Amino acid sequence: MYSPLQLEDYDISPIHGFLPTEQPLRRLPDPYYEPWEMIMDKYNHYLLGHHIRRLVRKMPILGTDKLSTRAEYQRAFTILSFMAHAFVWGRNGAASEPASEFLPPSISIPWVAVSEFLQLNPVVCCAAVCHWNWQILDENANDPMGLDNLGTLHTFSGSMDESWFYLVTVAIEAKCAPGLNAILDAIAGVEYDNIDRVTHALNRISGALCEANVILERMYEHCDPYVFYWKIREFLAGWENMAEAGLPYGVLYEGVDDTDTFSLDNWQSLIRRFRKYAGGSAAQTPLLQAFDIALGIKHYPTGKRGKQSSVVEAQNRLRKQDSVPEPPPANSYLVRMRDYMPGGHRRFLEDLAATCRIREYVLLTCSDSLLRQTHMGSDPRVLLRQAYNNCLDMMKAFRDKHIMIVSRYIIAPARSGPSIVLPSVPPISSHIIPPEEQSRARASQQSSTAHPLPGGRLGGDSLPADPTMYPQTNKSSTPLSNGGIVCSKPAAAQLQSKARLARTVTDDSVIRGTGGTDAIQFLKQVRNETAHTKI
């Protein structure tokens, strides 16, 4: 017997979709968690001043028993994610200090506990930086969830570019909430064989997807590709397939996975306990996977071709009275990305696949002979097919735009390198800084360069600035005729000798997304599979 899905049963908002109905908490209410919140109060200052690792090591190990609501768990997950990734990737600003392979128990123990409650992996994900990291600027605005009326709670860089990058996703999620309701309405129309209801629901889905396309095009307004690639992207990376960035084994969550002492005798056993998680990725939002399932779009392993469901398959599935689950996406990456979604959202995708037969209904309602009679524009069956194909056109257009963004924000900066032109800097006047102070500063700088403080797991925190963090400030430069400077080729090559995710790629090496995949190959295949689903 048909039993309609209810969004609220899966922690999905009928108003905001996969975003919370209420705005995310800006602070945990219990004073017990002030050690976390005090770091977040000056988070960007601490990260800029290279204090994060020192502060996290001193932070007490707090329990999660004083978190009482889902919103509080979501807040805890978000701020622990920001602190954890700053600890792993922040490098303390030191060229000699690598990415940390160890996460201290002050973060790892509560982070894992909060993750188990929310039923997702303890690593930065779309939910942490987007779904639970927004605020409304003017609650009386005509469009409270409009892109221009949203702000972030936290960013790694403190930049407008990073905020905009997250908020574009938040606005898309909010504007597509009516599309989720339309999916459920279309399913009901199929169950009751109401072709007009299905058509109307599909038109609402394509309308939501059209709004998503418009919002995605606005990414370029306030997010600069250079800033994103060289200053933001690394913090979003996880610890899977990141050997080239300094994490060959992943990250060990101290206090959770290390019960032995560190010695050569048990080193191999310890290595197996390192965790490998993908980083933040657009594939982690349930929104696109929900539309894929609703429209019957099948995805296959990257590099392999498959086929979309046929009329015969549609007949076999519709004959079944009981719920017959649609096979999950054959692309293993998309399946794994569901582990980075909250448990309720993941279950929604699973139950949606078990009940949704929209594509089958359209296939069987629109016969082959009808498809050839394009002049029958007023026939309800033709309108149904058009509505369905319009949804696919909007999905393909969205994925085309996504490919363009990845090309501009990841591929192009990786190929071109960090060299940028800077204006020349005139000498500082002796009226501003006395000559003796300038001499003392130069001597101090030379001393710190000759004797850098130790890095690594237990390294110091007052370390010289890392030129690979902001490569445009590298002093190995060449003067230009107009008085500016540009990083020299040897200097750029020296930058690339450091193991980092943000690096220049001069050969045919794979350029990976923060999720650890070959970004362009994966996205192009997903786009092509969407296009091939049209009827």
Note the topology:
Elements lengths: L33 H8 L1 H6 L3 H7 L11 H20 L12 E2 L1 H14 L7 H6 L2 E3 L13 E3 L7 H16 L1 H15 L3 H22 L2 H4 L2 H12 L15 E2 L13 H5 L14 H10 L15 H9 L12 H6 L5 H13 L2 H8 L2 H5 L7 H37 L18 H16 L26 E3 L5 E3 L1 H8 L22 H13 L4
Parallel strand pairs: 1-4
Antiparallel strand pairs: 2-3, 5-6
Helix pairs in contact: 4-5, 7-9, 8-9, 9-19, 11-19, 13-16, 14-17, 17-19, 19-22
| Tally of alpha and pi helices | 22
Instruction: Please list the strands of the largest sheet in the order they lie side by side.
Output: 1-4
Give a count of the beta strands, DSSP E runs of length 2 or more. Answer: 6
How much helix, percentage-wise, in residues? 40-55%
Summarize model confidence as the mean pLDDT.
Answer: 82
**Overall morphology:** globular
Q: Which consecutive residue ranges, at least 5 long each, have pLDDT under 50?
A: 421-426, 428-432, 448-499
Describe the structure in your own words.
With 535 residues, this protein is mostly helical. It has helices at residues 34-41, 43-48, 52-58, 70-89, 105-118, 126-131, 160-175, 177-191, 195-216, 219-222, 225-236, 267-271, 286-295, 311-319, 332-337, 343-355, 358-365, 368-372, 380-416, 435-450, 489-496, 519-531; strands spanning 102-103, 134-136, 150-152, 252-253, 477-479, 485-487. The strands form 3 sheets. It has a two-stranded parallel sheet with strand order 1-4. Strands 2-3 form a two-stranded antiparallel ribbon. The chain has a two-stranded antiparallel sheet with strand order 5-6. A hairpin with a 5-residue loop joins strand 5 (477-479) and strand 6 (485-487). The longest helix has 37 residues, at 380-416. The chain is globular. Mean pLDDT is 82; it is low at 421-426, 428-432 and 448-499.
